[in-house]
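Internal tracking record. Fields below are filled automatically when a chain is submitted to the structure queue. Please do not edit lines marked as system-generated. If the sequence contains nonstandard residues, flag them in the REMARKS field before resubmitting.
Queue: standard
Priority: normal
Entity type: single polypeptide chain
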Amino acid sequence: MAKDYPRSYRVADQIQRELSGLIRTEVKDPRVPSTMTVAGVEVSKDLGHAKVYMSTFDLLSDGPAREDAIDALNKAAGYLRKRLGNTMRMRTIPHLKFYYDNVQEDAARLSTIIDDAVSTNTTEEDPAGKPEQGQV
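SYSTEM-GENERATED OUTPUT FOLLOWS
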């Protein structure tokens, strides 16, 4: 069991749950939008550092606003770490570093590219669904 699901993964899951609530209720910075969520957390093996990946539901938000939100969260990292220390039962709480996770934007962009490629497909097929003779 220990090798299948190491402690760093369990700590990361707990930090993700706790941080999502703390950011929603405790962070009062107007630069952090209400649509921002904790997409994932990676904790180092020694449990000293945690990379917190943030995402937003608003895919149309601009880059400078996202960077401002991440800067605001990085400035509040000490406060959030202290609040995590109050709720989590650990000897030391990892140092938090916030990053923007652009996986959703990349997935939407790739989906659009694939849809465009499929719609412009010019391969002629016979009614049975097989390519005509001489075509691959």
